[in-house]
């Protein structure tokens, strides 16, 4: 595995986290079987992928990327799936999150092996 695969694993981990979180409301407090299984299984896959991406990418960068892009992604999904449209302050805050993730990636000191 190299840095490229680490970023692929990170991207896939974020994707699985988005699937998991998008089904979380549908679990109805984990009382519905299929949404609960989807949520749990995809979150386990997400954590597995993140752990492997941390072999090459520093923990702080992985976590900042995962959390930041997860927030942005789930906000978009909630807008589509549940018609939860963000207001202006939320959009400004999400824009700042995106800027923060970009800064973290541009200013990191990852050693390419």
Overall description:
With 113 residues, this protein is an all-alpha fold. It has one domain. It has helices spanning 3-24, 33-53, 59-81, 88-106. Helix 1 runs antiparallel to helix 2, helix 1 (3-24) packs parallel to helix 3 (59-81) and helix 3 (59-81) runs antiparallel to helix 4. The chain is flat.
What's the number of domains?
Answer: 1
Ranges where pLDDT stays below 50 over 5 or more residues in a row are: none
Biggest β-sheet, characterized? none
Beta fraction of the residues? Answer: under 5%
Short description:
The protein has 113 residues and is an all-alpha fold. The chain has 4 helices and no strands. It has one domain.
Features:
mainly alpha
Topology:
Blueprint: H1 3-24, H2 33-53, H3 59-81, H4 88-106
Helix pairs in contact: 1-2, 1-3, 3-4
